[in-house]
Amino acid sequence: MSRDRLRAMLERARRVAIFTGAGISTESGIPDFRSPGGVWSRMSPIYFQEFVASEEKRREAWERAFSGRAGWTGREPNAGHYACARLVAAGKAQAVITQNVDNLHQAAGVPADRVIELHGNASYATCLECGVRHELADLKALYQATGDLPCCRSCGGIVKTATISFGQPLPESAMARAEVEAMSCDLFLVLGSSLAVMPANGYPLLARQNGATLVIVNRDPTHYDDEADLVLHDEIGPTMSEVVPAD
Predict the structure, then answer these.
(1) What domains can be seen in the chain, in order of their start residue?
(2) Which of 81, 105, 119, 134 is catalytic?
(3) Which residue among 19, 106, 143, 224 is the one 20 to 30 A from 203 at the CA level?
């Protein structure tokens, strides 16, 4: 019955804002951050200020990235990601706002310029000085050959994976785009987020306060279940496959 209600809501909606968190990607085998057994229970985060100030911390961070210890890359999209891509392709949603760094929405077919990444992307790196993009495979090959820490091929600056680390400012452009989506939608769809992390958890309430319907699909209860018009405590892939079926 709840899935039927969600399907009807999506059919009636003129503009859907999709907001995804770790729960959509755990179904692809990507670990989340904070739960028991999650990334931060297995390794301590390296703060942005530590990365910039310490060669030792930069080396540790790159060893993690090149070894894949965090487990954020190298997986395949699941049914939930493909359902999001279908909503974008159909024109129901203009973009996907995501807290994830795994690049799986792009891999599922959402155009890169339609993915609003609040916490960055772990599948490539950028120069902290000039912003030039660097591919991880190229950096890894050079590191393994020389042992030298990655530096920018353009300006020689410090290079870091494109994720947003603790202590690093969130990208202003992504936050501004997310706010526009929240203010423009008539249905705000949360998939796989506990809505515990600020300031990202403000977008669903912003949309709700602006008159949008709020729907939350998450395996476990969230901080905003009481604010939502519909809550489904269910697996995302099977739910979204049913309500947004492939042709």
Answers:
(1) 1-30+76-119+170-247 (3.40.50.1220), 38-71+120-163 (3.30.1600.10)
(2) 119
(3) 106
Q: Cα–Cα distances in Å, from 234 out to 27, 49, 166, 192, 214?
A: 12, 39, 30, 10, 16
The pLDDT of residue 99 is above 90: yes
Closest-CA residue to 211 (of 242, 182, 244): 182
pLDDT at 198: 85
The torsion of the CA quartet 231, 241, 245, 90, rounded to 10 degrees, works out to: 70
Q: Taking 60 as the threshold, does the pLDDT of residue 101 lie above it? A: yes
**Beta pairing, strands 133-135 & 120-127:** antiparallel
Q: Taking a C-beta distance cutoff of 8 angstroms, is the pair 6, 215 a contact? A: yes
Q: Report the pLDDT averaged over residues 207-212.
A: 96
Cis peptide before 169 (omega within 30 of 0): no
CB 39 within 8 A of CB 115: no
119 is catalytic: yes
Beta strands across the sheet bearing 133-135: 133-135, 120-127, 159-163
